[in-house]
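To illustrate this point, what follows is a protein record of this kind.

___
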Amino acid sequence: FIDGNMGLGHRRLSVIDLEGGAQPMTDGESRRTIAYNGEFFNFAEARDRLAAGGHVFRTHSDTEVLLKLARGAPTGWIRQVNGMFAFALWDPADRSLTLVRDRFGVKPLYYQQTSEGLAFASEIKALIGSGLCPEPEVATDTLAQYLAFRQVLEPNTMFRGIRQLPAGHFLRISADRATPEIVRYWNEAEALQEVFPVGADRGSFGEEFHKAVRRRLVSDVPLGSFNSGGVDSSLVTREVRNQVPGELHTFSIGFAEAAYDETPFAAEVAARLGTTHHAERLPASAYAALLPAAIWHHDEPLCHPHSVQLMHLSSIARQHVTVVLTGEGADELFFGYPRLHIPRLTAMAGPARRPFGILLRELAALAGLRRVRKLADVLASEAAPAIDAHRFLPMETLRSLCPEADYLGARRETWQRIDRNQDGIEVLLEYERRAYMQSLLVRLDKMTMAHGLEARTPFLDFELVLWSKLAGREAKTGKGFGNKLLLKAEAEKHFSTGLVQRRKVGFGVPLREWFRTQAEFGDMLDAMVSPNSYVASLWPLQALRTLVAEHRAARADHSEALWALLNIELWSTQVLNRSAST
């Protein structure tokens, strides 16, 4: 679609109204045009309201409903949209362009402003390849952030000048406003009062979860479910099974290394629910072969090692279904991460926090207690514990590579913007949703869409998110240091205690062992520490070689650092160099 100096393009994955929902779509009444990625789950109800008001529809797509609904600033009408979305809306009346991203960032949206105007896309590589933007440059100030957290927090990316539109925001630019206006439309405290006003009746978790899953079953193509055998995906799969008649396909992936393999638990859930289950174990050689492609699809260095098996699992699922439901978001609603207790532990330590942390770190290092050492590292840090608990790299390793860098970056600002007028654990959970969860959602979208598979996240139904804020501290942590107690209690009604209470793996990857024993990874690491490597141009070569040598000799576990560095090296060849040649 072209209108003067404005253009929209769209490549569609057809899920609803396969024949009639082509985009970009122009409204015959207002002449506004939309290019839209995602799903508007409650579009049927909105369509009925609009039709009652005199609007005429020519398709059965959610895109047309969104197009007719979108009048005026999104702060008004977006509250009616329950979905996952990133879209561009062009209004020829005032020659204005509005970009909107969903409340939690399930769908990505990138943009870059240049002297020529504003370019935007769902993928960074689309901006780079468009010819509308300058040659890509690495934002070197983000490298320390990536090493520390394996993630660069929105609105930044690892490319200079390329930005993410933050979740829950819209951007508007027009003929009379050359500088984009960025507005936050999603505020959890305000939305909570609107959806669940004080004194109003609210349903149980089961009722709210049922509705969240039901909304995400709207589709004109086959649906399935990812099932790791964990609490979250098992609850999702059970609810889908209860609502979808006939055959239901479920999918899981694991490894030959038993400590990292969850496929037996997924098989137990599948047998219990009577699904048609597809499981595979991914060998190290296949993982290594897939890693460069995963980085290419991700646009930036990977955060999560399990992105690779998620991409492969998506290729398997796409042979049977077009849509899958997943368990992302549950941990960020119901206190699923043990690290969320770290701020409380640091408060208990009081003034002795740092000296105690330094002592504990040394003892944990001697004993090889990795989890205890991470806790000690946060205790010994000067950073806010809620922020630093996300750090993957030990501080001594980070400082050996980036001695002066501000590795906290945008995280400090994000933490400071969290509403403090709520229970302390809700402050932590809201920060999780704005920080770490963003990496999970980017991974989910890019690894599934690499194979044309759409992933839907019922735990991130905005009404369920708001309900979770009212569930109370004891439903999440109990009186002590519990995690996700409400969900575990719900799961124990339907699955074995052994399955529900087992230690979480969550698509873990045996990188520590592979970096020491697998030839494919040995070759990658050798190339990474050669004098001509990209990472050697960024950090002292001897420091890099020391990390590799100590890990191979089992004198230390540097798998976190090696994973991050290897990703940057492969990213330089898969994305930076490839982009420069196109």
